[in-house]
Amino acid sequence: MKLLIVEDEPVLRNALLEYLRHDGYVCEVADSYLQAHEKIKLYQYDCVLIDLTLPDGNGLDLVRTLKADGSRAGVLIISARAALDDKVLGLELGADDYLAKPFHLVELNARLKAIIRRRQFQGQHHLLFRDLSVFPEQALVLVRDEPLTLTRKEYDLLLFLLANPNRVLTKESIAEHLWGDDADTADSFDFIYTHLKNLRKKLQEKGVDNYIRTIYGTGYKLSTE
Ligand code: CA
């Protein structure tokens, strides 16, 4: 799961970054409206956390941009502005939720998980795909009721594929998703190959074959048949 944290207060930004990274999210940060705008134009996120009061702009305009672009990212507004108008407007613009500062990180994480569940798992606590069942809150994958042991990156890769069935995912988009700002293209392509090989092997050992197709020269696709 890849997140963008838009927050200009360094203490809160770093607290969010540390907490959410520790929980296994791939996180990027933006400390200004312009930086955030550039990132949402360039990259795909599963969820964007948006502070409304930014030094060079209004977070609500970022929500507008995401919606105008047809982004699939969830949007969680975090704001110290307690104004009801902001909350109503934010939700009307298409934000998924609104959390007033100060908040507990545990609550933020619960709201985030709910958004991701709604968006990617149609509100279900688990996802079924052919012989796979995935329980994202426990990071648990079952193959015909037998647990599959995956590394964090293998798990993230599988979830990214499951969120995009039958769509070709380029190596660039996978690298972006798995490493965010740390994606160094040349190296990360080798890592993707290795993680994919291992993931396929583990699936094969459980009798699951040909779920992940290689699209020569482009990337990979999760096949629904
Ligand atoms: Ca602020």
TrEMBL record:
Classification via InterPro entries: CheY-like_superfamily, OmpR/PhoB-type_DNA-bd, Sig_transdc_resp-reg_receiver, WalR-like, WH-like_DNA-bd_sf
GO cellular component, one term: cytosol
Annotated region of DNA binding: 124-224
Gene Ontology MF terms: phosphorelay response regulator activity; transcription cis-regulatory region binding
Keyword Glycoprotein: no
Residue ranges annotated for the OmpR/PhoB-type domain, each copy included: 124-224
UniProt GO BP: regulation of DNA-templated transcription
Location of the Response regulatory domain: 2-116
Gene3D superfamilies: 3.40.50.2300, 6.10.250.690, Winged helix-like DNA-binding domain superfamily/Winged helix DNA-binding domain (1.10.10.10)
Residues that bear 4-aspartylphosphate: D51
This protein's UniProt keywords: DNA-binding, Phosphoprotein, Transcription, Transcription regulation, Two-component regulatory system
PROSITE patterns for the chain: OMPR_PHOB, RESPONSE_REGULATORY
Pfam families: Response_reg, Trans_reg_C
PANTHER family: REGULATOR OF RPOS
Name of this protein: Response regulator transcription factor
Source species: Hymenobacter telluris
